[in-house]
Amino acid sequence: MKTLEAQVPELLLREVQELARHQNTTVDQIVSVALASQVSAWRTRESIASRAGRVDWDKVDQILARVPDVPPVPGDEL
Asked: How far is CA 19 from the centre of its chain?
């Protein structure tokens, strides 16, 4: 493990400390989990944006055109 030093607002630090006490864990663990979650979200967004840029929308329209126009199964209505 490596040590990371970061400046955070006092209010945020108090919130994290309270959460750590409530979860019976350490501030380090809360920060590590939150950081991992945020990095994962950013990578996921980048991946989705990259894949969306490669979509052949004409092909999507062709596929969707094959879906029958019928009412939904009872219970599946919006």
From this structure: 21
Position 16 scores a pLDDT of 97
pLDDT number for residue 1: 85
Q: What are the residue boundaries of the structural domains of the chain, listed by start?
A: 10-65
User: Nearest CA to 17 among 30, 35, 1, 4?
Assistant: 30
Sign of the C-alpha dihedral computed for residues 26, 32, 37 and 41 taken in this order: positive
The answer, as to whether pTM is greater than 0.70, is no
For the chain, report the end-to-end CA distance as a whole number of angstroms.
Answer: 49
Q: Quick one: CA dihedral 28, 16, 26, 44, positive or negative?
A: negative
